[in-house]
Amino acid sequence: MRIVFMGTPEFAVPSLRLLLEQKYEVVAVVSQPDRPKGRKKTPTPPPVKEAALSLGLPVLQPERMRSPEAVAAIAELAPDLIVTAAYGQILPKGVLDLPRLGCINVHGSLLPKYRGGAPIQRSIINGEDKTGVTIMYMAEGLDTGDMISAVEVAIEDHDTSGTLFEKLSAAGAELLGNTLPSILAGTAVAVPQNNEEATYAPNLTRDDERIDWGKSARAIYNQVRGLSPMAGAFTYLGGEVFKVWACSPVANKDKVGAAPGTIIHADNLGITVQTGQGQLLLTEIQPAGKRAMAAAEWLKGARLEAGSRFDEGGAV
Fold first, then answer.
1. pTM above 0.90, yes or no
2. Looking at the domain assignment, is residue 282 inside a domain?
3. Are residues 90 and 139 located together in one domain of the fold?
4. Nearest residue to 224 via CA among 289, 287, 158, 313
5. How far apart are CA 203 and CA 201, in angstroms?
């Protein structure tokens, strides 16, 4: 059986490695093109490409999977099955119709909830206490295909997107290994999704990253966790971007008269900020032009007075 594997970020690497460990024939790997990274904008290969090359597998990186050239390249590989995991592009019908066993996707949510490109981040941002991985047959819509198998994964209160990515990545690879035999044998049971229960997790935007201090401490805490360690949540201090990488809600009551965003006090524990409901202790931050650091470390040399406010003078 000839398998073409499609994936891009680190999330997909365990699934690729599992296919080889279980002696499946992966004839090629398809990944997104190298993208510029860092201050020097150096073209950097995605993790799946790096893993594939280290394993001696050929790699294709079409800019647009919908292009006739990309479809033709996949057709030449004559796949019996296409396996995708966080590839990053919707496959056209011309590709979906190629394999005799279909195309399956390892998706990081319990479908039909959180269809889309950012299910892991948004499950944390929205305060969910569980998520999971679903393996489904791919269809032309956005994560609308029939479901084959699923596994549930708890979201712990300390989880960030980074730790949850690791959990779901491992769970997805294990689920893939357990699911493939039934697909190959033709005994897999495909269950249609209930579209009435569907929710969506679109890719994150800059607006998703900006902290609204009028929200509750818990909501902001979830936002910070959901954006770490990738983009990071941000606010403004003195008109400059001020990132928050880690924080925790404070148990004490609201301070009467303090507007959301007001700095209540700053000490060796961090920076305590008033929110729309409760207070938040910022423990890891990144001021403009500086590296990420413990808030207590930054406070040793910073002048930050109680009563100052985040977001004042910040760009819209």
1. yes
2. yes
3. yes
4. 158
5. 7
Q: Are residues 235 and 188 in the same domain?
A: no
Tokens 């001020």 appear where? 242
Q: What is the CATH number of the domain that holds 251?
A: 3.10.25.10
Q: Does the annotation place 15 within a ligand binding site?
A: no
110 in a labelled binding site:
yes
- For the chain, 316 residues long, give each residue's pLDDT as a single digit of tens: 999 999 999 999 999 999 999 999 999 999 999 998 877 888 999 999 999 999 999 999 999 999 999 999 999 999 999 999 999 999 999 999 999 999 999 999 999 999 999 999 999 999 999 999 999 999 998 999 999 999 999 999 999 999 999 999 999 999 999 999 999 999 999 999 999 999 999 999 999 999 999 999 999 999 999 999 999 999 999 899 999 999 999 976 656 678 999 999 899 999 999 999 999 999 999 999 999 999 999 999 888 877 889 985 444 3
Same domain, 188 and 210: no
Domain count, the chain: 2
Rounded to whole angstroms, the Cα distance separating 127 from 39 reads 33
* Structural domain boundaries, residue 134: 2-197
**Is position 111 annotated in a ligand binding site?**
yes
Q: Is 123 assigned to a binding site?
A: no
Location of structure tokens 């207590």: 296
Task: Write the single-letter amino acid at 122.
Answer: R
